[in-house]
Amino acid sequence: GASATLRSEADLGEGTVLVSSAAAEERRAGERRLLQAAADPATEERALAALLGAATRDRAISPLQPAQRMLARPGAPLGSRLLAVGLLAGVAPLESDAALSAIQAECREKPAEATAVAQFLIEAGRPGDALAWLKEIAPPAQLRQLPLATAAAAALGRLGRWTEMEGLLQPARWGPEDAMRLLLLAKAGAMRTGRPPAGRVREAIREARDEPEVLSRLFLQADAWGMAEAALEIGREVLRCAPSNARVSERMFALSTRSEDPAVLPRYYEAVLAGRPQDETARASLALLRLLAGSNLRASAQIAREVAARAPDRPLSRMVLAMALGREGRAEESLAELDKIPAGARSPMSAGVRALLLAWAGRLPEAETERAPLLAAAPSTLPPVLRELLRAWPPAQPDPLKPLDTDQD
Questions:
Q1: What span, in angstroms and rounded, lies between the C-alpha atoms of 289 and 260?
Q2: Measured at the alpha carbon of residue 217, what is the angle toward residues 216 and 223, in degrees to the nearest 5?
Q3: Can you state the percent helix, strand and coil of the chain, rounding each to 5?
Q4: What are the pLDDT digits (tens) for 138-172?
Q5: Alpha carbon of 15 to those of 40, 203, 332, 337, 344: distances in Å?
Q6: Are 305 and 404 spatial neighbours (Cβ–Cβ below 8 Å)?
Q7: Rounded CA gap, 319 and 349, in Å?
Q8: Closest CA to 36 of 26, 47, 22, 52
């Protein structure tokens, strides 16, 4: 009745929480609650799925019974059945193989489901089996088209067969998803030749131009594939047409900071400002990087003063103003400005700027005290231009920039 269903729902809810506990005793209790929930047809499928998920994280939870029951359940979701097959492989391999063969027979003429099965095989470390099965069930023309082509390309990539992957994708057209095909071709070409795939990446961007969602997916995929240069190029286009995309912006910042090319991080801020011209953080950060690099000095010094006038107590404002003063040959004034940052708000960035300014002031022993720990412990948190300045030690004295405002305190 209704009360029994409520008990089963309670078992399901509490059991799902408990099997994720850090405590082994609570995980065992959670397994028992889920098994109770699995005895009720109203909660059976969800409880079995929770047990299978728990078994992937905790070897003490036996996958045998829940996997067998999930595979025997009429209408069980394909994803849950494939998860059951994968877990059975470790405890009953023959039974697992038989279940997989049955699923493959069901999915032969269903492209979306067949793609899911092939992806399962690839993730299970069997890309050769996945590719052989795809070629068995689909003629070449169909294999080049979505959705099967994504699985075929993934299998070829895992096998390192980049020329074959290019041959699969080159003649195809994927309609609204064609930008992803072009990015796959860029990846294959880069892996085959060892050269950056700039031409193909630009083709993909042109195909997806002014489609923020498509560009965002391209960026995330390029990033996931480790194609940092491609991701940065695509990401700048995302920020141009979708400046509020926080996920892409945050990831772009991380990639730009890690790059060894000092020009990459300024280009990130330029892309941000192209979409959000009034972004004060981006304006100040770009000015700071240019002051560090010794480029666009007069305009950057002017921006430093504008930013400092509007938000004088922000650490970033103090840093960029300090760098402007340092570029003007006013090293002691610059250090006094930087030292106004409260101790709790100081960062590796402000410490790196301080080391540079101390060196410009001729106080090399103090500068070394700031510099050495940064390079030993936190170089990746510094922008590339500052990393370069701290590594090429001691830094050259800058040619003094004529002060814009000699009355600046």
A1: 14
A2: 90
A3: 75, 0, 25
A4: 999 999 999 999 999 999 999 999 999 999 999 99
A5: 14, 50, 64, 57, 43
A6: yes
A7: 9
A8: 47
HSE-CB for 334 with a 13 A CA cutoff: 27
Distance of alpha carbon 242 from alpha carbon 213, whole angstroms = 9
From 298, 296, 366, 371, select the one nearest 332 (Cα to Cα). 366
H or E element in which residue 25 lies: helix 24-38
Place of tokens 């760098």: 323
Place of tokens 């993909």: 204
Is the distance from CB of 398 to CB of 294 less than 8 angstroms? yes
Whole-model pTM: value is 0.75
Distance CA 166, CA 209 (A): 23
Tens-digit pLDDT profile for residues 355-392: 999 999 999 999 999 999 888 876 777 888 998 999 98
What HEC string does 69-86 produce? Answer: HHHHCCCCCHHHHHHHHH
Determine the Cα–Cα distance for residues 149 and 153; give it in Å rounded to an integer: 6
Q: How is residue 262 written in tokens? A: 């000092």
- Count of other CB atoms within 10 angstroms of residue 176: 11
d(CA 357, CA 62) in angstroms, rounded, equals 62
Distance CA 155, CA 119 (A): 8
Q: How far is CA 366 from CA 179, 262, 325, 331, 357, in A?
A: 53, 26, 19, 14, 10
d(CA 291, CA 301): 7
Quick: pLDDT tens for 18-67.
999 999 999 999 999 999 999 999 999 999 999 999 999 998 998 999 99
Report how far residue 326's alpha carbon sits from residue 323's, in angstroms, rounded to the nearest whole number. Answer: 5
> How long, in residues, is the chain?
409
| Cβ partners under 8 Å of residue 87, min gap 6 | 52, 55, 56, 63, 67
Tell me which residue has tokens 């994720």: 20
Q: How far is CA 309 from CA 39, 226, 320, in A?
A: 69, 41, 12
Where do runs of H (alpha helix) occur along 194-339?
198-208, 212-224, 228-241, 246-258, 264-275, 280-293, 297-310, 315-327, 331-338
- 101 within 8 A of 138, measured Cβ to Cβ: no
